[in-house]
Amino acid sequence: MTKKKFWLGILAITLVFILSAATCFSQSGGGSENIENANAEQEQHPESAVPSVDTTTNTTSDFIMKGTVLQSYIGTSENVTIPDGVTIIGQGAFWRNHERLTSVTIPDSVTRIEAQAFTHCNRLTSLTIPYRVTYIGPENFGNCYKLTSVTLQSSNIFIASYSDGSEEALPYNLKGAYKEGGIGTYTRPNGQSFNWTKQ
Asked: What is the pTM of this model?
């Protein structure tokens, strides 16, 4: 009789423990239901989700990329087409190829051109800046002596310079001509002329 009472007592304690644990779990909203609720909350309020940032550096053929930033062109071609999907041309991106580059095609996905991206590209003759570009960093076309035609497709480009006002993004008086003329193609008679005019 004593053994029977003992085992009944153990069974009762075990049942109480199991019931208590089940109650706590259901009140906390655990399990897959809790994960589903969290996912539903993120879908309703996406701004609360932590954005994913691609910091992986990839070398794709002739381009070193970090996410959608073109960090460097390492090819040897004279005529370069930047891949679609690039959003930023990084600082000094074409420095390594500056002696070969004669033309570059910038895709419509680009929104920024950082400082010195095309500095010393002294064989570059023409360039089109797409309509989504809103920023051109300082000293972008320094020593681009053969550059005689620049097409600007955006009317809202911030043209940067260094803090002392030197080395503006666009060469010589092109900034002034653009501010006055807006969207369009600007040319100069030869690479040594400072006088850019809208066509």
From this structure: 0.68
